[in-house]
Specification:
eight-stranded mixed β-sheet; Rossmann fold; five-stranded mixed β-sheet; alpha+beta; BirA Bifunctional Protein, domain 2; 40% helix; elongated; 16 strands
Length: 457
């Protein structure tokens, strides 16, 4: 019995119309990356499990798609199979069961690449990467299990000019896409100082994981989670005061200095933020840069400035994010290679542009000209002329069989092809063709030679 076909939950097929729109986003981002001197890189869809585990925090590690080893169907070769599977279900790693996983993001694979190839790279090394990633998340609007990321990273430099450049890349891309956004920034140094204020650096992970959920669960639930993670009422009160900082960027910085002013780690953090604000103060996008001390980005490898992008006028999670990670390659035995990077969430950007109707009309354009098929000799001539138009970059096709006018007109209408070129026996004899604008209904007769210079608007 045949089964009804379906897709794995959290994945999608993309029609031609969708692919064209997605390519518009990809090309816009790619062009800006290259404008800023970034070069392309690709890494495998799967990585060794040990490469990924422990890099994304306890929440992220749960979302890694593990890949089962080959040969597990042969129970005779794996007498411990049942016991090993039980360990895997408990969250443990068992090499006999799984040694590889689908990549969770593009940053860790990039760090692994740099660690393996650092002797051949020219630093600062600037790369961009546009590839799919996979997360075992609960599918919902704007959140999928398979989705694309577009990353740009700079490694081998501590300069905050890199953060300024990445801020400008964000601003340029979203300006070109027509999306009004807030570029939110914070520094992990400030969060580290908050942990110190609450009794010690060992609280850093618990605090950032809870704060990172603020938008989703609200302040009361955050306080409840902090309590469950062992923080005292006094410590939670300090965090609540921190999360209550508001106003303009200058006002927020002033309130932060009042709260953490005696902490040298905090001072380094706000100096980083002030550096970026000073460099962008004269730029048009400065009004979109928002200091957000609630921004935590719950990934363990960030060490300095962190970014998150929010689209205005639409209900959607972040559509981009990133930050500085000054010892990420140290995880792979190659210390002291600093880095900073950003990522674009293409799937969410697509949803935002669809909702706000921001895609240009020309993005959807497919075939420009349909040549009618009206007989053997007519078809041969039409095919030759079509090839000449294609050589000039005009998108054309010829109807696949000789049939009635009505059927060919309906085909053009369904595919939204704006022009038809009609060559019948009389036109063939006179070496002319009829060009019909299928939108306006206007028709014009031109010679075969003139067809090559016709302006198909």
């Amino acid at each position: 019995m045949s089964t009804k076909p379906g897709l794995p939950q959290g994945t999608r097929d993309f029609s031609a119309a969708t692919v064209l729109k997605r390519n518009f986003i990809f090309n816009t981002i790619r062009n800006v990356f290259e404008l800023y001197g970034f070069q392309p890189l690709e890494t495998p869809a799967m990585e060794n499990l040990e490469t990924l585990m422990g890099k994304y925090g306890e929440e992220g590690d749960k979302l890694i798609f593990r890949i089962l080893n080959n040969g597990l169907d042969n129970a005779a070769k794996h007498p411990q199979l049942r016991e090993d599977f039980e360990k895997v279900l408990e969250g443990k790693n068992v090499k006999g069961i799984t040694e590889r996983a689908l990549r969770y993001d593009l940053t860790i694979p990039f760090a692994r690449y740099v660690a393996m190839n650092h002797g051949q790279l020219t630093f600062p090394f600037k790369r961009y990467q546009i590839q799919p990633v996979w997360r075992a998340d609960r599918p919902q609007k704007g959140r999928y299990r398979e989705f694309y990321q577009c990353d740009a990273d700079v490694v081998g430099s501590y300069s905050l000019l890199n953060e300024v450049e990445l801020t400008n890349i964000y601003a340029t891309v979203f300006q070109q896409l027509g999306i009004d956004v807030e570029i939110r920034i914070n520094s992990r140094k400030i969060l580290a100082a908050l942990a110190e204020q609450c009794g010690g650096a060992e609280h850093m992970t618990n605090i950032t994981i809870a704060i990172d959920k603020l938008d989703k669960i609200g302040i009361d639930k955050v306080k409840e989670e902090l309590s469950q993670r062992g923080l005292s009422n006094e410590q939670i009160a300090i965090i609540e005061q921190y999360l209550g900082i508001n106003g303009t960027n200058a006002e927020k910085l002033r309130q932060l200095k009042q709260l953490l002013g005696n902490n040298t780690t905090a001072q380094k953090g706000w100096e980083e933020i002030e550096f970026i604000l000073n460099y962008t103060s004269s730029l048009q996008e400065a009004s979109s840069i928002v200091v957000d001390f609630t921004l935590a980005r719950g990934l363990n490898y960030y060490t300095g400035i962190i970014f998150e992008i929010k689209a205005k006028n639409v209900q959607m999670g972040s559509i981009g994010g990133g930050g500085r990670y000054d010892d990420l390659t140290g995880l792979f035995g190659v210390p002291n290679i600093p880095g900073v990077g950003i990522s674009f969430g293409v799937d969410r950007i697509y949803d935002v542009m669809e909702e706000l109707k921001l895609f240009p009309a020309e993005v959807q354009s497919g075939t420009k000209v349909l040549f009618f098929n009206l007989g053997t000799a007519e078809c041969q001539t039409a095919f030759s002329l079509m090839q000449q138009l294609r050589s000039k970059g005009i998108r054309c096709e010829i109807y696949h069989e000789q049939t009635k006018f009505d059927k060919q007109f309906k085909y053009a209408d369904k595919k939204q092809i704006p022009y038809a070129v009609i060559i019948g026996s009389k036109e063939l004899e006179e070496k002319v063709c009829n060009i019909k604008n299928l939108v306006s209904g206007e028709q014009q007769q031109v010679s075969f030679h003139e067809l090559m210079n016709y302006q198909f608007i």
